[in-house]
Amino acid sequence: xxxxxxxxxxxxxxxxxxxxxxxxxYWLELRCGYDALLEGGQFQSWDNGWHVGGGxxxxxxxxxxxxxxxxxxxxxxxxYTGAVPCVLGLVVTGEAIDAGEASLALRLHETxxxxxxxxxxRAGLCYYRFGRIFFSYSGDAQPLEGTGLHVVKPxxxxxxxxxxxxxxxxxxxxxxGFTFTFDGEQRFFPVMATxxxxx
Length: 199
Known about the structure:
Shape: elongated
Number of helices: 1
Order of helices and strands: HEEEEEEEEEEE
Structural class: mainly beta
Number of strands: 11
Mean pLDDT: 85
Radius of gyration: 21 Å
CATH architecture: Beta Barrel
CATH class: Mainly Beta
Strand content: over 45%
């Protein structure tokens, strides 16, 4: 049964010696993940995306960690969801959304466990370069008005995660949560995997 080795692996992680819970003061972080978009908003013509980035974390006190991140996001064009003129031979194409995020995070975790859940909240700014959408007929492509925008939006996020220590200096964090821009136009659930390296 394929699930049996995974179950044994998790039990071994939970039974690791207490030294694995020793806290470093500073951590470097590498992060990647998947962004599941919710319906509506300015993202409606684009598909779910992915992200990659890094940052640093500071163990401010037992059970509380502060982190700062810089992350790149990309959302591929899916299909135009607005009104399309009834013109024979009309082709609609589009470009991806590229975004850059700068954020601060707070993580609250238990202090007496080697592996366990944590609560996380983030806030920051995200720069979006929305791709252009083109209507083309007979090879003459024209960008749709209102696409190709460049905007900066503040955002927030709340979620939960699970931390897994592999050694006193290496941890993995798996987390997800509800993320939204403050204007309500973008809403999505990122699924993030982070590797922490203790300094």
